[in-house]
Design brief:
By secondary structure, the chain is mainly alpha-helical. It is built from 4 helices and 2 strands; from the N terminus they run ααβααβ. α1 runs parallel beside α3. The two termini are 15 Å apart.
Length: 89
């Protein structure tokens, strides 16, 4: 679990080369994955779910090898799931 200050810090975390290395090493070892992006802001931005989803969409677009890692899982659910119509909150 990570606690980050705001959406800009979240974007920085998601794009950090260490995070990408963890994906490359860890995802092939996983059978299934569920990710959750949460906010504890008492007055959250009503568009935070869309902003989080956009970070994921941009990351998948910018790193074309990521979808292949996800496709190798038995199941994948969460904020980065482009087939998931739910919004993170």
């Amino acid at each position: 679990m990570y606690a980050l200050k705001d959406i800009d810090a979240y974007r920085t975390y998601m794009y950090d080369p260490l995070h990408r290395q963890i994906d490359a090493i860890g995802l092939p070892l996983a059978a299934d994955m569920i990710s959750h992006d949460l906010t504890d802001d008492p007055d959250p931005d009503p568009e935070i779910g869309d902003k989080i989803a956009q970070v994921h969409a941009n990351r998948f677009s910018d790193h074309p090898e990521l979808p292949g890692l996800i496709e190798g899982l038995g199941s994948y659910e969460g904020s980065g799931d482009t087939a998931d119509d739910s919004k993170p909150a």
